[in-house]
């Protein structure tokens, strides 16, 4: 079947199998940031935005993206670099395999709730597993980023 | 120090946070054959017949292999130095299947769907045999896991396949029985830990292809490129010269990828068909056919005098290596040597063990490598001893723990040349507020807050075995390339090794490019395991950089027409001390590329006669709900002595990550089997690693000693960090409930039902 | 892996209904649970084009389309206010935000899963399902019905005056519940709903008027024991039936205490 969608700002038309998952589809389109870490919708590595909401692409049909907007980290490079630098400054990116899903969902959090507190951060990102960092460095990075964002906004930049 | 001991960003960090395609499956050729495995549904069976004719008819199927198609020389998948202590007990496929999940058929085809269809069409007739599922029943059982005559053990580790023994040994010092008799108090306990999974986010995966020269190229998510080359040579029964192994970025390892879990299958397919192939394990496969921690039952006995003096410790470990022996003979050793040795000045110790084969998933290497299990037993026993003696557990430790300069008979006779354990304990005691909080406080109708503590140690490389190497090369523009055979698996060794080189060469870290690991290009390195990279490959890097620096100085002096001792090098210029004339590194490097007979390239290789232990102390405060059994971690205070901290950020994150893995092992990560040997926790839905809501608050500090044999005084950090939560949490739970738990994980149910039982 | 050859994004409920009469065809909902089994289905029927992904708040009821995501349910201010935060509490532990953005109310309720927090929560409310052919059926009736080929179109929550508390015990914070528990004070008296026992959630009314004189520690405790006595529990990987029965006592008592005004009872 054919689908038409907007992938990272570009119009894409593709012929797909009916049961193809969005995760596999975006990877065939060169969006290799999107990873699979489990088969049970538990790890959050495959997080993408579907019409700007973070979803598990491992559990979403590519067919369902027809006529909609899909965003992966490939389409958010500037934001990813700006926020990711704060994770990098903690050394908390570690192996990096969970990073795209984690960063996508963190960006979703900041859009929904620009200045979350620690509890809100933890709850929003609870579906993003990480086995390397122990999460503490990711939290430090997020808090440092929020401070930076706040001071940037105060300066009116 | 300008570069070492600085919190420098990891070289690959920005690529990782922006999601660049740098991992195995991102890089695999798009025309790879998809390789999958048909697996045994039985824990123990003999294959009588395999029908593949219908599967062959599926369009797109390229290859189907059974036990009849593979070489018949046994090998081990363990990534260890040759001759490996792990027995040669594997074939790529075997007629006997030994656990639920054991591969039976390899299928390769053009698409995943075709391969899945073909797998469904294969019919296997098994003669089902009785399995050994309980590791207590294994030794000298009538059922043999490896009855075959071509099974072989290359090292004297006490292995005997006709007794289901993968290894067995007795070790002692002094007269332990007499010491126990003379002690005022002797405490004994048996502690059981499960076959926990590393659960790295990137599952096992590999792709393979033939190159221009007819050689098998293997790109794999592995910690051990050189060992892997040898393993594949053995498995495929082909010359090692025909194999090249490379690793791209790795999505976590923690020891899992110190075993060649998945590589042999696509390698065999490519070697046979000449076509590129790849295998991507599912999470389920990674759980059921991975290389988890050895299940162990550790019995620890400690004898002490009334005044608190510990005189002797004995440990007996029964270790379950599962269906195959990878890392069986070696992990067990750490359960004694790296646990007993926390206590100095012992009059006697005894350490005996048996490692047995059973019909469950084969174990492997997981961060901590046996020390984790042993330290849990020893530290829990020490906590019980403190209780018996009515001595504060911290004071008891301060009286008995190993001190700098002490000889450690139970640690291969080595001396603790660098040990800040005393400072670590003192600091942790303050951080957690031990004086006010020990043992517990009631904070509500049903809630108790309590504290617990554990010490830990590990090693730094395997003494007299591991080899670390670095190759350092000067290039035009005055930048350097650092070639390593160690594998950065996210831990940051590409960066910390570059920091060491930059320190010696007095340059910015961006002037060092790190390249690894590739068996054709990298200098030989045992690989990234056994806490060896910082210590050993680091030392090699320091030496290579020192020698390269010497050559730069010499060449500069020669150009300036003076002796080498008449110049200085500041990283950019070689300058004559007397008259200030100088030549730049850039000019030297450029000149070296024209009419030159001196190599601006140095390879250094190191082994170490010692394995200096890093030390750590962890103390935890929990809030325990006595009704539901829920344990909330309020505060985890940890202080580490890893010698000089090469990169404070990366060392801190290592520590935090290790602690959370230890928390998972203690509270939620269970491994259970059906009556027929099927592993239940085969997904992240069932195998519950901690989320960020489960780990509480962790605070890490460093108290550094200076290790004279390490690079810039550094020891290892990678493994020691997983070892404290087991003992500390178990202690805190005891202090909250009065119940001593001997088996992990300590689930809320065990706590709540234990309290009910305790009260009635 | 879930496989199928046909995907149909239907344009009417009638089309969906007709397709759904064939046994091999399935309505995929959020597809989370369906995807986890290894099975092959005929046509995957997608209801996402029918505008059924919204929550309408009316004067006397909430009307919740079957394709409403659990996340939207969790964030709905009206439901939050009406349930005093219990709706959000029943949902926020389910795996993660991305999961709840995909999972649908219809899928959660139609599946009538034993582990369901969602079913447990709705059973505590005065709620109904609207079936395409079967009309409006009360939630407890629906929970007891056999699975059939009808279509769950909406979930309706009547704004009957009540106060409700939701509690669960989980081995880790985002795991399935070992016991899910909702306690509601209604005009007909107090009821407890127990889910993840591990069987399908069930309702126990305070038929003995244990709480009639008001909620005290003693009466809350007594009701907890009463509920535990009247709920069959079983064992699975997450807990034994003994532990579950014990948790029912604890959570029902705490739920009552929350209703009685003790903020920190849990």
Question: In words, what does this structure look like?
Answer:
The complex is a heterotrimer of chains A (157), B (760) and C (266). Chain A has 157 residues and is α+β, with helices and mostly antiparallel strands. Chain A is 38% helix and 15% strand. Chain A folds into two domains: 2-74, Ubiquitin-like (UB roll); 75-154, [2Fe-2S]-binding domain (DNA polymerase, domain 1). Chain B is an alpha+beta fold and 760 residues long. Chain B has four domains: 13-131 and 198-288, Aldehyde Oxidoreductase, domain 3; 132-193 and 297-416, 2-Layer Sandwich (Aldehyde Oxidoreductase, domain 4), CATH 3.30.365; 417-460 and 612-760, Aldehyde oxidase/xanthine dehydrogenase, molybdopterin binding domain (Aldehyde Oxidoreductase, domain 4, 2-Layer Sandwich); 468-606, Aldehyde oxidase/xanthine dehydrogenase, molybdopterin binding domain (Aldehyde Oxidoreductase, domain 4), CATH 3.30.365.10. Chain B has 19 helices and 29 strands. A seven-stranded mixed β-sheet of chain B has the order 3-5-1-12-9-10-11, with helices on both faces. Chain B has a five-stranded mixed β-sheet with strand order 7-15-14-13-8, sandwiched between helices. Chain B has a five-stranded mixed β-sheet with strand order 18-19-27-28-29, with helices on both faces. The model of chain B has no long low-confidence stretch (mean pLDDT 97). With 266 residues, chain C is an alpha+beta fold. Helix content of chain C is 35%, strand content 27%. In chain C, helix 10 runs antiparallel to helix 11 (241-259). The relative contact order of chain C is 0.12. Chains in contact: A-B, A-C, B-C.
CATH fold naming of the largest domain in chain B: Aldehyde Oxidoreductase, domain 3
SS content category of chain A: alpha+beta
Q: Please identify the top-level CATH class of the largest domain in chain A.
A: Mainly Alpha
CATH superfamily of the largest domain in chain B: Aldehyde oxidase/xanthine dehydrogenase, a/b hammerhead
SSE string of chain A, helices as H and strands as E: EEHEEEHHHH
Number of helices of chain B: 19
Show the largest interface: A-B, 53 and 57 residues
User: How many domains comprise the coordinates of chain B?
Assistant: 4
Judged by helices, strands and strand pairing, the structural class of chain B is alpha+beta
- What is the CATH homologous superfamily assignment of the largest domain in chain A? [2Fe-2S]-binding domain
């Amino acid at each position: 079947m054919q689908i038409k969608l907007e992938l990272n700002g570009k119009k894409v038309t593709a012929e797909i199998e009916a049961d193809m998952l969005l995760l596999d589809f975006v990877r065939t389109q060169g969006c290799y940031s999107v990873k699979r870490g489990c088969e049970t919708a538990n790890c959050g590595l495959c997080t993408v935005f579907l019409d700007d909401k973070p979803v598990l692409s491992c559990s979403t049909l590519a067919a369902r993206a027809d006529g909609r907007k899909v965003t992966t980290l490939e389409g958010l490079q500037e934001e990813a670099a700006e926020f990711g630098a704060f994770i990098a400054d903690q050394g908390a990116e570690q192996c990096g395999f969970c990073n795209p899903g984690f960063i996508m969902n963190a960006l979703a959090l900041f859009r929904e709730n620009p200045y979350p507190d620690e509890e809100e951060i933890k709850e929003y990102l609870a579906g993003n597993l990480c086995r390397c960092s122990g999460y503490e460095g990711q939290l430090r990075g997020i808090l440092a980023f929020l401070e930076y964002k706040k001071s940037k906004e105060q300066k009116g930049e | 120090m300008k570069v070492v001991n600085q919190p420098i960003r990891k070289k690959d960090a920005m690529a990782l946070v922006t999601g660049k395609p740098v991992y195995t499956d991102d890089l695999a050729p798009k025309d790879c054959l998809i390789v999958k495995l048909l697996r045994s549904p039985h824990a123990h069976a003999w294959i009588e017949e395999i029908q593949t004719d219908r599967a062959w008819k599926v369009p797109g199927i390229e290859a189907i292999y059974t036990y009849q198609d593979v070489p018949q020389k046994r090998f081990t998948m363990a990534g260890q130095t040759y001759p490996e202590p792990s027995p040669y007990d594997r074939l790529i496929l075997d007629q006997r299947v030994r656990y639920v999940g054991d591969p039976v058929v390899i299928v390769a085809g053009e698409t995943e769907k075709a391969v899945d269809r073909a797998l469904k069409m294969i019919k296997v007739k098994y003669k089902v045999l009785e399995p050994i599922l309980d590791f207590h029943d294994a030794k000298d059982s009538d059922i043999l896991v490896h009855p075959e005559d071509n099974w072989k053990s290359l090292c004297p580790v006490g292995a005997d396949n006709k007794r289901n023994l993968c290894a067995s040994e007795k070790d002692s010092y002094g007269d332990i029985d007499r010491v126990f008799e003379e002690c005022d108090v002797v405490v004994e306990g048996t502690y059981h830990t499960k076959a926990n999974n590393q659960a790295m986010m990137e599952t096992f995966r590999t792709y393979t292809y033939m190159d221009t020269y007819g050689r098998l190229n293997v790109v794999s998510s592995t910690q051990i490129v050189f060992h892997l080359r040898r393993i594949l040579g053995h498995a495929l029964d082909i010359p090692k010269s025909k194999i090249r192994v490379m690793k791209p970025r790795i999505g976590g390892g923690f020891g899992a990828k110190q075993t060649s879990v998945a590589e042999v299958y696509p390698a065999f397919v490519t070697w046979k068909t000449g076509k590129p192939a790849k295998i991507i394990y599912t999470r389920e496969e990674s759980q059921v056919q991975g290389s988890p921690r050895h299940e162990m039952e550790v019995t620890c006995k400690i004898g002490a005098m009334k005044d608190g003096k510990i005189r002797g410790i004995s440990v007996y470990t029964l270790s379950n290596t599962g269906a195959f022996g990878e890392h069986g003979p070696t992990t067990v050793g750490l359960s004694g040597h790296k646990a007993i040795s926390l206590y100095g000045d012992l009059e006697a110790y005894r350490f005996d063990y048996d490692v047995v084969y059973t019909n469950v998933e084969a174990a492997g290497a997981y961060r901590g490598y046996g020390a984790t299990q042993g330290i849990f037993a020893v530290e829990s026993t020490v906590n019980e001893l403190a209780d018996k003696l009515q001595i504060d557990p911290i004071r008891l430790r301060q009286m008995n723990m190993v001190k700098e300069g002490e000889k450690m008979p139970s640690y291969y006779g080595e001396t603790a040349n660098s040990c800040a354990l005393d400072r670590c304990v003192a600091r942790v005691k303050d951080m957690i507020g031990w004086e006010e909080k020990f043992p517990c406080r009631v904070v509500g109708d049903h809630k108790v807050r309590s504290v617990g503590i554990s010490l830990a140690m590990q090693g730094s490389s395997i003494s007299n075995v591991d080899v670390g190497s670095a190759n350092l090369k000067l290039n035009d523009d005055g930048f350097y390339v650092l070639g390593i055979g160690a594998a950065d698996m996210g831990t940051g060794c590409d960066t910390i090794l570059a920091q060491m080189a930059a320190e010696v060469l007095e340059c910015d870290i961006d002037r060092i490019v790190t390249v690894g690991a590739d068996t054709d290009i990298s200098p030989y390195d045992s690989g990234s395991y056994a806490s060896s990279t910082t210590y050993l490959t680091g030392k090699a890097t320091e030496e290579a950089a020192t020698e390269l620096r010497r050559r730069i100085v010499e060449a500069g002096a020669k150009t300036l027409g003076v002796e080498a001792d008449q110049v200085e090098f500041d990283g950019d210029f070689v300058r004559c001390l007397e008259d200030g004339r100088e030549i730049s590194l850039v000019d030297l490097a450029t000149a070296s590329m024209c009419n030159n007979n001196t190599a601006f390239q140095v390879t250094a290789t190191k082994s170490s006669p010692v394995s200096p232990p890093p030390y750590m102390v962890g103390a935890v405060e929990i809030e325990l709900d006595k009704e539901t059994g829920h344990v909330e971690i309020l505060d985890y205070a940890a202080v580490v002595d890893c010698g000089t901290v090469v990169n404070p950020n990366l060392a801190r994150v290592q520590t935090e990550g290790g602690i959370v893995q230890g928390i998972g092992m203690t509270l939620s990560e269970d491994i259970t089997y059906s009556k027929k040997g099927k592993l239940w926790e085969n997904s992240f839905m069932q195998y519950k690693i901690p989320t960020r809501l489960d780990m509480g608050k962790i605070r890490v500090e460093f108290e550094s000693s200076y290790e004279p044999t390490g690079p810039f005084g550094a020891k290892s950090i990678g493994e020691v960090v997983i070892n404290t939560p087991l003992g500390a949490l178990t202690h805190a739970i005891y202090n909250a409930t009065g119940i001593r738990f001997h088996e992990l994980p300590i689930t809320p149910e065990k706590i709540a039902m234990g309290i009910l039982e305790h009260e009635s | 892996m879930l496989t199928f050859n046909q995907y149909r994004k239907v344009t009417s409920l009638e089309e969906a209904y007709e397709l759904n009469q064939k046994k091999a065809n399935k309505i995929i909902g959020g597809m989370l649970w369906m995807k986890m089994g290894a099975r092959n289905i005929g046509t995957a029927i997608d209801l996402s084009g029918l505008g059924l992904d919204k929550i309408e708040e009316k004067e006397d009821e909430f009307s919740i389309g079957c394709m409403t995501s659990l996340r939207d349910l969790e964030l709905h201010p009206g439901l939050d206010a009406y349930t005093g935060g219990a709706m959000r509490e029943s949902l926020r532990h389910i795996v993660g935000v991305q999961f709840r953005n995909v999972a649908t109310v219809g899928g959660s309720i139609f599946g009538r899963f034993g582990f369901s927090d969602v079913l447990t929560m709705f059973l505590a409310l005065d709620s109904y399902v609207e079936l395409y052919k079967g009309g409006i059926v009360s939630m407890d009736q629906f929970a007891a019905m056999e699975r059939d080929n009808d279509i769950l179109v909406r979930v309706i929550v009547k704004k009957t005056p009540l106060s409700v508390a939701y509690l669960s015990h989980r081995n880790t914070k985002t795991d399935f519940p070992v016991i899910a528990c909702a306690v509601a004070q209604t005009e007909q008296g107090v009821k407890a709903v127990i889910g993840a026992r591990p069987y399908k959630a069930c309702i126990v009314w305070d038929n003995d008027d244990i709480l009639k004189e008001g909620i005290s520690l003693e009466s809350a405790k007594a009701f907890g024991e009463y509920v535990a006595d009247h709920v069959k529990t079983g064992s699975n990987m997450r807990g034994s039936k003994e532990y579950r029965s014990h948790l029912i006592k604890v959570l029902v008592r705490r739920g009552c205490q929350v209703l009685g005004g003790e903020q920190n009872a849990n």
